[in-house]
């Protein structure tokens, strides 16, 4: 997992570490600490937890694993374009 992407996506979504953790189903008492440890790389979340983060943050799961930053940004733009609501 590319740890800086988790932090970047969380900040872009306007969420605190605790808010992200709780929204992903982590107990409120440990949410901030766990998300912080994932963002710093001290620990790695299991894939299922990362999938929950992706859902909350509205990013594709693969965004957290793509090594090349430009390619990750391209994938994110494609994802958002693909899933943007159709205008009436």
Task: Report a brief summary of the structure.
With 88 residues, this protein is an all-alpha fold. It has five helices and no strands. InterPro entries: Cro/C1-type_HTH, Lambda_DNA-bd_dom_sf.
| Order of H and E elements | HHHHH
Radius of gyration: 13 Å
What is the chains' assembly state?
single chain
Terminal Cα separation, in Å?
38 Å
Total helix count?
A: 5
Largest sheet: none
Q: How is the CATH topology named?
A: 434 Repressor (Amino-terminal Domain)
CATH superfamily: lambda repressor-like DNA-binding domains
CATH arch. level architecture: Orthogonal Bundle
CATH class: Mainly Alpha
Number of strands: 0
Contiguous low-pLDDT stretches (5 residues minimum) are: none
Describe this structure in words.
This is Helix-turn-helix transcriptional regulator. It holds the Pfam family HTH_3. InterPro entries: Cro/C1-type_HTH (IPR001387), Lambda_DNA-bd_dom_sf (IPR010982). Residues 6-64 form the HTH cro/C1-type domain. It comes from Serratia silvae. It is a single chain. With 88 residues, this protein is mostly helical. It has a single domain, classed as Orthogonal Bundle (434 Repressor (Amino-terminal Domain)). The protein is 62% helix and 0% strand. The chain contains 5 helices and no strands. The protein has helices spanning 3-12, 17-23, 28-40, 47-57, 69-82.
């Amino acid at each position: 997992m590319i740890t800086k992407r988790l932090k970047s996506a969380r900040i872009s979504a306007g969420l605190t570490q605790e808010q992200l953790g709780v929204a992903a189903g982590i107990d409120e008492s440990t949410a901030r600490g766990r998300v912080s440890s994932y963002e710093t790389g001290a620990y790695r979340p299991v894939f299922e937890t990362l999938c929950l983060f992706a859902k909350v943050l509205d990013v594709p799961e693969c965004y957290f694993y793509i090594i090349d930053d430009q390619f990750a940004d391209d994938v994110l733009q494609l994802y958002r374009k693909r899933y943007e609501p159709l205008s009436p």
